[in-house]
């Protein structure tokens, strides 16, 4: 069967990575979490004090760090999940903190950061058989992807999912704070100049506000079959 390219885009915390991972496993495709790449660069920026106290960014320093950064995904043998590595260090946990979440969107809005990461993402997907999730996968990274999904759900539902996820990891935060972060990132991601978050014309919309994981998985596999059998 033809090994296609699958792009899953959408708002923050709408469960894109869960559904993408599940589908990748089912159909034997590579899964790439493009958000993890923006998060890894943000972690590197925070560790190297790229942000001044007033929030301004030291671009010269960030450009240097970006040139030296090596991001990769390696399978954890025990859990069978791919984890994010930054210059050979496992940063999977460190890139999911509140601090990284509240600094990632300004970093992801920088054209030179996007240029470098998009190049890397295209390299990873050059042979097809890949599912990538993010904000601009169907519009910019793989505009010719054979299957494009645009996921959405109400911001309160998404904030609830993120809140539960953080709690499970022992990183509990007040619900209102989580909601504010979700809404702020949605705003920055949809209003930036370079590759803003928007639905590609040929994307299929999936509002998963009221879908169970099983229903969502079934919906995805049906669409995948349609696209590969056509
Ligand atoms: O997990 P969640 O959906 O909340 O976010 P993520 O996929 O980990 O992405 C974190 C941030 O990276 C987003 O809020 C965007 O600012 C940025 N991002 C992006 O600009 N382009 C992508 N293709 C993926 C993520």
Task: Give an overview in words.
There is one protein chain. By secondary structure, the chain is an alpha/beta fold. It has a single domain (5-224), classed as 3-Layer(aba) Sandwich (Rossmann fold). It is 50% helix and 17% strand. The chain contains nine helices and eight strands. A hairpin with a 2-residue loop joins strand 4 and strand 5 (89-90). Helix 2 (34-47) packs across helix 4. The longest helix has 17 residues, at 175-191. The model has no long low-confidence stretch (mean pLDDT 94). Bound molecules: cytidine-5'-diphosphate. Residues 12-13, 16, 34-35, 38-39, 104-105, 108, 134-137, 185, 189 line the site of cytidine-5'-diphosphate.
By CATH, the topology is Rossmann fold
| Biggest β-sheet strands, sense, barrel | 5 strands, parallel
Enumerate how many helices there are, as a single number.
Answer: 9
**Oligomer kind:** single chain
Bound molecules: cytidine-5'-diphosphate
State the distance separating the first and last CA atoms.
11 Å
Order of helices and strands: EHEHHEEEHHEHEHHEH
Helix content: 40-55%
Poorly predicted tracts of residues: none
Spatially, the strands of the biggest sheet line up as 2-6-1-7-8
Find the count of extended strands (DSSP E, 2+ residues): 8
Strand content: 15-25%
Radius of gyration: 17 Å
Number of domains: 1
Global shape: globular
**Category by helix and strand content:** alpha/beta
List descriptors.
binds cytidine-5'-diphosphate; 9 helices; alpha/beta; about 230 residues; about 15% strand
Would you summarize the structure shown here?
This protein has 230 residues and is an alpha/beta fold. Helix content is 50%, strand content 17%. The strands form 2 sheets. It has a 5-stranded parallel beta sheet.
């Amino acid at each position: 069967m033809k090994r296609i390219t699958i792009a899953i885009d959408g708002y923050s915390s709408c469960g894109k990575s869960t559904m993408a991972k599940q589908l990748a496993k089912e159909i034997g495709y590579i899964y790439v979490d493009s958000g993890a790449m923006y998060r890894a660069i943000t972690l590197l920026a925070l560790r190297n004090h790229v942000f001044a106290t007033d929030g301004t960014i030291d671009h010269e320093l960030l450009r240097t760090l970006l040139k030296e950064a090596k991001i990769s995904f390696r399978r954890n043998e025990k859990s069978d999940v791919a984890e994010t590595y930054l210059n050979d260090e496992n940063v999977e946990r460190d890139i999911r903190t509140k601090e990284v979440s509240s600094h990632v969107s300004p970093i992801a809005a920088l054209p030179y950061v996007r240029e470098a990461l998009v190049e890397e993402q295209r390299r990873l997907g050059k042979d097809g058989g890949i599912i990538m999730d993010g904000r601009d996968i169907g519009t910019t990274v793989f505009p010719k992807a054979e299957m494009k999904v645009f996921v959405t759900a109400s911001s309160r539902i998404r904030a609830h999912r993120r809140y539960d996820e953080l709690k499970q990891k022992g990183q509990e935060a007040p619900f209102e704070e989580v909601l504010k972060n979700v809404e702020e990132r949605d705003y920055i991601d949809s209003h930036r100049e370079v590759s803003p978050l928007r639905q590609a014309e040929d994307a299929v919309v999936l509002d998963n506000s009221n879908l169970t994981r099983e229903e969502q998985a079934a919906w995805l596999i049906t669409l995948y079959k349609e696209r590969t059998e056509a």
